[in-house]
Amino acid sequence: MWKWMWVLMFVGFAPMALAQEPDAILGVWATEDNESKIEIFKCGDAYCAKIIEIEEQVYPEDDPHGMAGQVKVDRLNPDETKRNDPIVGLQIMSTLKFKKKKNSWVGGKIYNPEDGKTYRCKLSLQDSKILKLRGYLGISLLGQTATWTR
Prior knowledge:
The protein is mainly beta. The protein is built from one helix and eight strands; from the N terminus they run αββββββββ.
C-alpha cells in the first residue's frame, strides 16, 4: 500500500517539476532567421521585449526607397512620428503575463517593423534554450509560430 502512495505522490507532483518560472524567458534570444537579437525584460508586472541587434544595420545600396547606407528605421510604423526611430532599440513586445495554469506567457502584443503591424502574441518555452512565439490576429489558430533560441 505504501508503494502506491509514493507512486501517486510522484505522479501528482511530476507536472509541477515541469512548470516554468515566470522569469524563465528573461534574457537575449536570437530570432528564427538569426537576423536579429531580442531582449526580453520585465516592464512593471508584465514582460516586454526590444530589438538589441540586427544583422544588417543599414539599408543596402539597392534600397528602393532611396535610403541606401542609412541606419535602418521603423519607416512602416503607422504612427508617422515614429518612422525615423532606429530599429535597434525598438520595443516590439509588451503586456505579456505569465499564466501558471497554462505554463505560458499570454495576453501580449508584438509589433513587426517589417510590415508595420501589431499582433497579439503568446510565448512558451520548449526548454531553457528554445522559445516558441505565436503571433496572431483574433484567435491563436489564425497565426504563425516562430522559434527563438538563446
